[in-house]
Amino acid sequence: MAQKDVGNKIPIYKLKSTDEVMKYYDEWGNENKYNKDMVDWNYTGPKETVETFVKYEKNKDILIFDAGCGTGLVGLELKKHRFKNFHGADLSQTLLDTVPKNLYQKLQKVDLNQNIECEDNYYDAVMCVGTFTFGHVKPTALDEFIRVTKPGGLICFTINEGIYEQYGFDKKIKMLSIKKWQEIEFYKSDYIASKDVNAWLGLYRVK
Ligand SMILES: C[S@@+](CC[C@H](N)C(=O)[O-])C[C@H]1O[C@@H](n2cnc3c(N)ncnc32)[C@H](O)[C@@H]1O
Question: What is the pTM of this model?
Fold first, then answer.
C-alpha cells in the first residue's frame, strides 16, 4: 500500500526551522485561534495520551513535566483526572501566555532541542503531546526526558506518524529500549483523524 503523504495534510508541517515554526505559533496563538482549530479538528492527542497515562498512574500527587505544553490542553486533561502538580515548558511565549492562570504550578520558556535546565531524576512523569512533529522537537529530547524522570517514572508521548521513521524516532526508541526504559504501550492513536493524521502513542517506564 502506498504510504500516505502526511506532510501535506496541515500547513505547519511544511515548515523546517524552529524560527519558522515559532513565527507560525505567534500568529496561531492569537485570539484563541489554536484552541478553536483544535476543537474544530477534533484533536484528540491530549485526551488519548492522558487516558493512556492514567491507566498506569494512580497517584494524583506526583509531579509531572508537560514538555511542549502549548496552550495547556494536556494540563486541562490532567486536571480533569485530578492531578494537581504539573509544570509546563514550551518555546512559544505567545502560546505560554494563553495558558489558563493557575493551571500549571510553573511555566517555562524552553527549547526542547537543547538540554533542559533541570536536575536529574526531578519529575515523576513526563508528558509530551503533539510536539514530536514536522520541524518541531527531535528524538534527542527523549534522552533529556529520561534524565529528568525518576527511575520507575513514566514517559508518555505522541509522535506524528509522518516523521516517525523520517526523523529516526523508530531507531531511537529501539535503542532506548535496550537499557533505558521499558515499553508499556505503543499504538497508533487517532490524534487528528479528521485530517487523516494519526500518531504513534508511546508509554514507557524509566529503568
Ligand atoms: C501541536 S503543539 C502541541 C501543544 C500541546 N501539547 C497540545 O497538545 O495542544 C506543538 C508545540 O510544540 C512547541 N514547540 C515546537 N518546537 C519546540 C521547541 N524546539 N521547544 C519547545 N517547544 C517547541 C510549540 O510551541 C507548540 O506549543
Answer: 0.98
- The three three-digit cell numbers of residue 165, written as one number: 521513521
* Atom 15 of ligand 1, residue of closest alpha carbon: 136
If one counts the domains in the chain, the total is 1
3-class DSSP state of 62: coil
Give the DSSP per-residue string, 131-198.
EESTTS--TTHHHHHHHHEEEEEEEEEEEETTTTTTTTHHHHHHHHHHHTEEEEEEEEEEEEGGGTEE
- State which residues form the domain around 123: 6-206
Distance CA 162, CA 3 (A): 9
Atom of ligand 1 nearest to the CA of 69: 6
Task: Express each pLDDT in 96-131 by its tens digit.
Answer: 999 999 999 999 999 999 999 999 999 999 999 999
Residue 1 lies in a domain: no
> Per the domain annotation, does 120 fall within a domain?
yes
Q: Decide if 129 is inside a domain.
A: yes
How many CA within 13 A on the CB side of residue 193? 7
Domain harbouring 89, CATH code? 3.40.50.150
Residue 105 near residue 87, CB atoms below 8 Å: yes
- Report the residue among 90, 129, 156 best suited for mutation to probe ligand 1: largest number of ligand atoms under 8 A from its CB: 90
Residue with cell 521513521: 165
Sign of the alpha-carbon torsion through 152, 138, 51, 26: positive
